[in-house]
Design goal:
The chain is mainly β. The chain contains one helix and eight strands; from the N terminus they run βββββαβββ. The strands form three sheets. The protein has a three-stranded antiparallel beta sheet with strand order 1-2-7, with no helix packed on it. The protein has a three-stranded antiparallel beta sheet with strand order 5-4-8.
């Protein structure tokens, strides 16, 4: 596009990403939770302007887990229903259920390829006791 000198110009760049998964007939999802533990970690400052980065990084509480998939199709962790239960460090009961839509907001689509595993993180509002942590994933 030829522009006259001094005119306002607008450039639009469009990039389409398409993901196509071919699934064998009769394939069933089957995810395995390899490990899960309550952790406290520094909040990522990626994407934050240098002037806005605090002197002390905020701490994020949550559950770090390793999800494996031994099936013969892709598993979408972010579309599964999740149930988490545990005891808080002060002995209170903690239960949280996520529908597929809610989990997608937390971890994204969460594609796990056949025979692979991925690490995910789910934030929590309170510290949990690892020995009481229970997670159920329903595809």
């Amino acid at each position: 596009v030829a522009f006259e000198p001094g005119q306002i110009q607008v450039h639009v760049v469009v990039n389409f990403n398409v993901l196509v998964n071919v699934v064998p007939s009769g394939a069933q999802p089957s995810a395995t939770l390899r490990s899960a533990e309550y952790v406290e970690r520094e909040q990522s400052m990626k994407g934050v302007a240098e002037d806005d980065i605090p002197d002390v990084s905020p701490i994020v509480m949550g559950i770090a887990f390793d999800l494996a998939y031994d099936g013969n199709r892709f598993f979408y962790a972010g579309q599964a229903n999740w149930r988490i239960s545990a005891q808080t460090v002060d002995g209170q009961s903690f239960e949280r259920s996520y529908s597929g839509i809610e989990m997608a907001r937390v971890i994204g689509t969460g594609v796990v390829a056949p025979g692979k595993n991925r690490f995910f993180f789910i934030p929590t509002e309170v510290p949990l006791q690892n020995k009481t942590l229970s997670i159920t994933v329903e595809p």
